Structures are given as C-alpha cells and as structure tokens.
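User: I'm putting together notes for a lab meeting next week and I want to include a structural view of one of the chains we've been expressing. I don't have a solved structure, so I'd like a prediction I can at least talk through. The sequence is below, exactly as it appears in our construct file.
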Amino acid sequence: MALRTLLVAGLATSATAAKLLVSGYAKGEGSNGTVLTLDYPSLKTVSTNSKLGPQPTWLDTSLYREGLVLGLDEAWATPDKAGLYSLKKGANGALDVAGFATVLGGPVSTQFYNKKQAVAIAHYGGGAISTFTVSKDGAFTPLQNVTYGAEGHGPGAGQTTSHVHHAVLDPTQSYLVFPDLGLDATHVFCIDPKTNKLTAHADLKAAPGAGPRHAAFWKSGNKTFLFIVHELNNSLVSYEVTYLPNGGGLSFKQIDSKSTYGDKPAPAGAAAGEIQVSPDNKFVLASNRNATLQNVPNPNPANATQVPSDSIVTFKPSPDGKLEFVQLAPSGGKFPRHFSTNKDGSLVAVANQQSFSVDVYQRDVKTGLLGKKVSSAFDLPSSPNNVLFVDE
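Assistant: Thanks for the context. Below is the predicted structure for the 392-residue chain, given as structure tokens.
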C-alpha cells in the first residue's frame, strides 16, 4: 500500500495515539476483502486481516476497550455464507478472528444494545433484522430474526423489496430503529431489558421513492430528534420524536427537509450515504456519492493528475430541529460510503470506496467547517467502505 502524509501544524498532537480501522470489499472475484489497522497520522498499515470473507462491510468498536471489534461479511455472491465476526485486539492494533456466526444474507450494519449484552444487525440483501447476544470472549448466540418482503415496497428501481440498511439505538437505550431503503420506512422496535428481545411498533413512513438509508438521533434540551438521510432522493429529514406511554412506541413529527447538497439541488445519479452527529452535538454531517462536483489533488504525490471528488455536507441544527446549511466540502475521492470523526471532532476520516483511498481532513470544531487534507492512504488492497478512529 502506498501512503502520503500531510500534517497541519498543531493538529496531529490531538490524535497521536490514534489508529484507523478500515474494512474493504475485495477488488475481484475469488479473493477476500481486508480489515486494515492504520497508524495515525502516518496511515502506515500495521495490520492486515483478510479472514472476513470477500465483502467485509462494517466495523463496530463498541467493545474496543474490552479488546473486541465486530465485523460483517456482506457476502453478495454467496448470501448463505454471510457472517458476523468478533475480532480480538492484539499487539499494535492487530485484529484476529475470535468468533463467528452465520447470519441472514446481506448484513450491512450492527448496533449494540441493552448495556452491550446484545447486538442487532440490519440486512440489506436479506431484507431483515437479526439479533444475537455477545459473550465477553466474542462468542455469539442467536436471538431473533425478523424478515420483511416486497409488500409496501417503494416505486424506485432499487425498491422491489425490503432493504434494511442501518441499526440505530435511541438516546434512552429503550428503542432501536432500522431505516429500510426498499420499503420507504424506518422500522421501530422496543427492547426488553430482561430478555434482549425486540418488539415491533409502528413504522415511520418516508416519502415514496425517498429510500431511507442511515439515521442518527440528536438531543436538544429535553427534546429528541431523528435525522434520516435518504439515498434515492438525497434528502436529510429532521423529525421530532415523542415517546408513547408504557413503551408503546415512538411518534414522529417532521420538522425540516434539506437537500444533501445544501443550497444546491442534488445532481442526477447522486446517492447519499452516511450520516453522523458531531461529538459536541452541534453539527450533523452526511456524505454524497456518485456525483462528483470538483477535482482535487491526487493523493499520490507522484501523480500530478487531479482526481474527481464527491462531497461531505454539514448542517447546524437549531434547538427546534431546523437544519441550517453550513458547508459542502470535498470528500477527497469517489463514493464516500462512510466517514467518521475522531473523539474531539477535529478530524474527519473518509472511506472513498471507488478511489481505493482513505482521506483525513482537518475540521474546525467551532464552525463545523472541514479544512485542509492532513493525510491520505491510497492504492489500498480493497475498496474501503467503513473507517473508524480508535484510541490506544
């Protein structure tokens, strides 16, 4: 793997003990994808794990301090071999497989719940939700499978059946929600704290053809909001959440809806991706894919040819859930499927899937503005789809 390091004065010290974990799809048939551990700020590869099948698609560091990381193999071509992995942290951030469970097809997201006793999985390819308990040594015990079909599917070409895309825990840790791109719905479940079982409640319905993909809860005073990014109509929608009595579900009031291109309409073919709330709870960020807006310097310093870049959008939510556009910034490459901030929000790492690069940008925590690129890892061995900062 090649790498390039650009350090902004005074910035690298905030993350000198950090590493990046990066999962990626295999480049071709017959090979496995990888999970990489990269040092920050050099982005030098310190560990490569190629034992998570051909399509490692998601990493979860909720148990990192306990020595475990969860990973998923989406297994497009062989959905009966889709898997949930636990990875044990070794020396210098190396990750070795500790546990495995076969799961329903097309897993793309995990969410721990009930004090990290159990984990929920969203299945895009399988149109389903599954849950498992997780032991301290990384072993899994299956709990539930909830499978959806084509009934109520959206009108779009990619909406012929259910495609559950994300699993998200609410701030009270009493509910899980699951955006379903195929059904134009977000499924709502309450959690039984004694059994780890989930009980379904009424869905939140999106506009026909919107394609809800990922979501994030946000607290403002005594109010709770849910932000949902929609892949097909490239909208970011804000809902105020009301908790119904006696664990009776959630109700939602739409507050705002914005283009994920801020003050611009979404270009043809655009596909919104990830959404995250900043660590200080003051901003919400989302990624835009498949519609490059500008060219940026090549991450390879030996190549003077500029490369096309997709974008990261930032909004500032008001206390009542309205969304104020802040910035549309380059992602550093094509198809930013995922991004994450470091602990204090001063850095944003972007997994540019089609550019085979991870690009790290400076971020001003006061203004929310993304600034200069500070480092890049390019020519990665697999197509990056998930990137997470971890502190050693």
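A couple of points you could mention at the meeting. The radius of gyration is 20 Å. The chain is about 0% helix and 55% strand.

User: Perfect, that's what I needed.
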